[in-house]
Amino acid sequence: MTSRRLVLTEDQEALRTAVRDLLSQHSPWASVLARTESDAPYDTSLWVRLGDLGVTSLLIPEEYGGSGGDARDLAVVCEELGAFVAPVPFLGSAVLATAALVAVRSDPVAADLLGKLASGEVTAALAIPATTVPGAVLSTTVLAADGKLTGTVTPVVDLVGAGLVIVLALDDGEPALYAVRPDESTAPPVRPITPLDLTRQVASLELVAHPAQLIVRGEPALSAVATAVVAGAAMLAAEQVGLAQWSLDTTVAYLKDRHQFGRPIGSFQALKHRMAQVWRRLGLARAAAIAAADVLVTETNPDEIATVVAVAASYCSETAVFAAEEMIQLLGGIGMTWEHPAHLYLARAKADELILGAPDQHRARLAELVDLPAI
After folding, report:
1. In a domain, 346, yes or no
2. Where residue 307 sits, what CATH number does that domain have?
């Protein structure tokens, strides 16, 4: 197994600082909480600012108008977005849909769509069930006929508001990748689903003879979607590290400030031990997430990539939930209220745990890869 680079570069640290400063100014938790109670769940102005910073097009090569970054850069951004539970369609558009298109960028249609994403003209979604697990056999019930698609895909991440949807369909029994524009219909094919995580939208795509543009047929179509799913799992791991870090920082700050019996409750040994457990797991999770991003850039062996990503996806999911649950418990009464943002982080952590595979599914996949029995 190749050793991984687990230390960020100066440029990546600068990127982290720039994204954090932008989110601190334009996406404080109070505004995120207020947005969950509105009819505009996504912050379009924040998306534009992220685009101006160049982070929404990090995966897009410069020749297509993108920033020309890589998965390691993208992971830095995802971690910060997780720390702020930012209400933007980053996973669906900047990760999943973009990764699928980049995988087939030699196709003229894909190249044109990448240019539109890079310019910020549209946001996109990849129409796969949110529960799709990396390494699973990809299938679809969407059928193509005469340039039109019919079928349902549910639930789809970040589908609400997307101007472009990348759909895996069967065309005369052959897999094919199509581009769909939801607004090209008098009956919009997007049916929102009430989410557990109010900062990330999910919906059903219900197509009935909907016009579509062919991107690519055959094995490249399946390969592009598989590549996107693996990239998405790795970026979710980075996001989960950001969730866990915010949960730890918030809890520690509260334990230092809250006093009982004349001293900070953070001085009580039992609470120190609980925070130490979160800190220990967070350190391991961060290393796993950085390794997962690094393997996407440096490795060509698909089994090696799958192994490292499966480790990160499993461990980071559970770490984020653990950190958020400890935060809720140790904040006491205030942690149970709607007015405190703790519930936003717990909901995002629990929802993330189910997107692109639950921890036990990743461990089962890992067992196959390393030839050990799954437990």
Report:
1. yes
2. 1.20.140.10
Residues 43 and 158 in one domain: no
* End-to-end Cα spacing for the chain: 23
Burial class of residue 185 (count of CB atoms within 10 Å of its CB; 0-12, 13-18, 19+) = middle
Say whether 211 sits in a helix, a strand or coil. strand
Query: Is residue 187 within 8 Å of residue 74, measured between CB atoms?
Result: no
Identify the DSSP state of 359: H
Same-domain pairing of 259 and 212: no
- 375 located within any domain: no
- What secondary structure, in 3-state letters, does 294-333 show? HHHHHCCCHHHHHHHHHHHHHHHHHHHHHHHHHHHHHCHH
Tell me phi and psi for residue 158, to 5 degrees.
Answer: 60, 30
Range of 64's domain? 10-123
Same domain, residue pair 322 and 202: no
- β-strand partners of 217: 176
Q: How many CA atoms lie within 13 A of 276 on its CB side?
A: 8
Q: How many CA atoms lie within 13 A of 356 on its CB side?
A: 30
Q: What are the CA-CA distances from residue 265 to residues 260, 325, 334 (Å)?
A: 6, 18, 15
215 and 239 co-located in one domain: no
Per-residue confidence of the chain (375 residues) as pLDDT tens digits? 566 677 789 999 999 999 999 999 999 999 999 999 888 889 999 999 999 999 999 999 999 999 999 999 999 999 999 999 999 999 999 999 999 999 999 999 999 999 999 999 899 999 999 999 999 999 999 999 999 999 999 999 999 999 999 999 999 999 999 999 998 766 779 999 999 999 999 999 999 999 999 999 999 999 999 999 999 999 999 999 999 999 999 999 999 988 788 788 877 889 999 999 999 999 999 999 999 999 999 999 999 999 999 999 999 999 999 999 999 999 988 888 999 999 999 999 999 999 999 999 999 999 999 988 766
